[in-house]
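Hi there. Long-time user, first ticket. I'm pasting a complex I've been working with (about 281 residues overall). I'd like to know whether the download I got is complete or cut off, because the file seemed smaller than I expected. Thanks.
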Amino acid sequence: MTPQDFEFCSVLLKLRSGLILTPDKTYLLTSRLAPLTRKLGMNSPDDIVAALRRKDRAVEDAVVEAMTTNETYFFRDPQVFDQCRTAVLPAMMKARGAMKRLRVWSAASSSGQEAYSLALMFKDEFAKTPGWNSTIVGTDLSEEMVERAWNGTYTHFEIQRGLPVKYLMAHFEDLKGSWRIKPDLRNMVQFRKLNLLEEFGSLGQFDIVFCRNVLIYFDPPTKAKILANISRLLPDDGVLYLGGAEGVLGVTEAFKPMPNVRGAYVPVRAPRPGASPKLGA
Ligand SMILES: C[S@@+](CC[C@H](N)C(=O)[O-])C[C@H]1O[C@@H](n2cnc3c(N)ncnc32)[C@H](O)[C@@H]1O
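Hi, the file is complete. Here it is re-exported in full:
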């Protein structure tokens, strides 16, 4: 691939998905385009680039999809889920005791394990305090991942990654070779295709947003814009979760870390004009 072709692809990917591809990632582009060449019935990655230069939208979509990294697993970073359960949920449920409802967004849900982990956590918590329910929405740029997530069927390998056996036994059906989530759990979660670069206010308000291991692929202005948009979907006591390699320092002032809670961030609101200063402040 010529440097000009690489540059053309990287500009396109940044525009379409936010992905930043620096020249040292040429190998990544070529290794992802090689299998796509066969899939699209073309002869070489050069044919793909030629189609991209002709603005072939179907090929563009396929390239954007092929360049996504979909690595995920159940209860990824278990401490995050444990602390969400023990340090975040109790206060949040107390504050919403009248409504008994939580809305949660897994923003970049890949094949669904994060959203289903949240559903398992809520199922456990709500069993202790009946009358509660949740809406869990999973979204991802990749159509293939959204389809996989809806399907809720996982290989042995995927099941072995992070899913406690008690959940496997209670909530998965053995399809002899793979495992499918039972309807009671699947019905707690809905998935849809969504690009975080686009406007997502129509999703409505959420109490908790998991936006983990996706901002890492974007440049600082893109991260800042997405975080500002997420902040608008959260109430003042809402909580955002980012991945272990992600943070807000030097990126945005819309969030600050929640003290002593791993991976959790709370919105920072600009003071309202005319609001009186806090006593003692
Ligand atoms: C590494 S996975 C993270 C999955 C999960 N959140 C986790 O932490 O395990 C990143 C996901 O982000 C999605 N993604 C990449 N760019 C995106 C964008 N612009 N909008 C929405 N999703 C995007 C990819 O398709 C991929 O499934």
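A couple of notes from our side: Residues 112 and 149 are 4 Å apart (CA to CA). The chain has two domains: 3-66, 78-267.
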